[in-house]
Amino acid sequence: MIENYKSIQYEALHFDEKVMLKRAEEFFHLMNHRRSVRSFSSRAVPEKIIENLIKTANTSPSGANKQPWIFCVITNPELKRKIRIAAEEEEYKAYHGGMSEDWKKDLSYLGTDWKKEFLEIAPALIVVFRKPYDIVNGQKRKNYYVQESVGLACGMLLVAIHNAGLVSLTHTPSPMNFLQEILARPENEKPFLLIPFGYPDEKVFVPDIHRKNMEQVLNWYK
Predict the structure, then answer these.
(1) DSSP for 37-69, written as a single string
(2) From CA 216, how far away is CA 131, in angstroms rounded?
(3) Nearest CA to 121 among 170, 171, 75?
(4) How far apart are CA 209 and CA 205, in angstroms?
(5) Taking residues 168-189, what's their average pLDDT?
(6) 37-201: what fold?
(7) For 165, which DSSP code?
(8) CA distance 110 to 59
(9) Single pTM value for the model
(10) Domain boundaries, the chain
(11) Tell me: the pLDDT tens digits for 94-127?
C-alpha cells in the first residue's frame, strides 16, 4: 500500500448511450449559448447563488489536490470603483503603447477599449487568486501545477455562472498586482483572473464572431 493512501468507493454515473448522447448534445447547446458579456444589470445576485457558483468551481481537479485558489467576491461599491480606476489605468497604458499593433488589430473586431465601466455596473466581481504555496504552521508548503489547476477551476466557474442563467466576462488587466493591494491579500496569493458577473442588461449586444469548427479543433487518432 502507498503510505497515507486512504480510499472510498466512488459511485459513477451510468446512462445508456442514447441518454448519454442526449445529455452531451443538450449540454453543448447550453454552453454554445455562452458569450462574454460587457452589458450588465445592476440587479444584485442572491448570496446563496454566488456561494453555489464558488462551490462548483471548488470541485475542480488540482495538482496533488492542493486546491491552490482563493475566490474573492466583491459587491462593495467603493471597492468596485477602486478596482475600476486601477484597471482602467493599466488598460489605458496598454492601449496607448503597451500592446503591439498586431495585438490591437486582433482585438479591434471585438469593440473593446481601455474604459471598463462594467466593473462598477456589474453587481459582483470575482477575483480569482492563485497560490504558489500555502502557509501551514508557519511553514511554506509548495503547491503543484498551480496555473493549470486554477485555470481549470475558472473554467468550472464560468460554466456554473452560465448554467445559473447569469452572464460573465473574463478580464485580465496587465499587470494585476493592484488587486492584491486593494483587497489586502497575503503575499502567497497572486491575482489570476477578474470576473465581473451578474444578470444581463435589458438589451445586450455582443461581437458577431464564430467558434472554430470541428475540423479546426479536433484530430482523431483511430
Answers:
(1) ---B--PPPPHHHHHHHHHHHTTS--BTT---E
(2) 34
(3) 75
(4) 12
(5) 95
(6) NADH Oxidase (3.40.109)
(7) T
(8) 32
(9) 0.94
(10) 37-201
(11) 899 888 999 888 888 888 899 999 999 999 999 9
